[in-house]
Amino acid sequence: MESSLMKMSVTPCSCIAPQDSSITRQIVASIPQPSLPSSISVTNASTSGSELTRSVFSRSLIALLSCFSLQEILVPVHPAMAFSVGISGPKEWLKNQKKKTSDFLIAPIIASRKRLESAVSFAAETASPADIEAAQKLVKSAARDCIKPEDGSLVAFQQKTGVEVCTFRLILKNAASLLDDSDPVKLNASLALDNLISSFTSLNDVLVGLSMNADVNRMAVADAFSETNRALDNFEKGVRECLGIS
Asked: Is 134 helix (H, G, I), strand (E, B) or coil?
């Protein structure tokens, strides 16, 4: 093996004159040659080649990244500047995530609708004072802390400290967070929210009057329930439009 390597090493190159070949052989022969194990395998050579390739690739990647500033790498890309090869911007990605989790935002609205349906049955013409009280509790629960709370309650304390307690407001805030304040879809949903809160407030007032006076016009009670249901439907529609779902 050593003699073979020596023969390979002393092959004259173009930069050495032919007459100096003997001197070159003497110089090369005097250099200690590394001993190579006779049992070296192709697998080891392949592994070393792979490590070398990875090392070269890593250095090339670092060199490439060094051409960009840290800001260019970390700052999110605006959707309008996103590549047109199927890579969407962060805003589009968030929209898709909101669509996937839309059921969690719509669920409280659906639950409120069911509680309103139960409250209607308690507020029938033959309702007892206990039934009317049960209807009031269901309406307050369906209102999701969006009507004036009772004095001294935890909700009242939270409102005084500036905490947003109205679930419907939080739902709309989440659903429309990616829309501009001037967006017609967001504006319409905000109007639907205001109308919903007003409808719940009026319905609660009617039930309070009914609890104090059983002779209250029951038609007014039915109308208040119908108006609140319509307002809830419109609000759900507005939230869905903000989320971009049907």
From this structure: helix
CA distances from residue 233 to 3, 120, 182, 189, 239 in whole angstroms, order as listed: 93, 16, 23, 11, 10
pLDDT at 48 over 80: no
How do the domains of the chain map onto residue ranges?
1-32, 42-75, 91-243
Per the CB < 8 A criterion, the answer to whether 217 and 238 are in contact is: no
**pLDDT (tens digit, 9 = 90+) per residue, 78-128?**
444 333 334 456 778 877 888 888 899 999 999 999 999 999 988 877 788
- CA-CA distance, 143 to 73, in Å (whole number)? 46
Burial class (CB in 10 A: 0-12, 13-18, 19+), 78: exposed
| The residue to which tokens 């509680």 are assigned | 115
CA-closest candidate to residue 55, choices 65, 66, 43, 63? 63
Distance CA 236, CA 202 (A): 19
Assign 20 to helix, strand or coil: helix
Identify the DSSP state of 75.
S
Alpha carbon distances (Å) from 70 to 75, 81, 107? 8, 18, 42
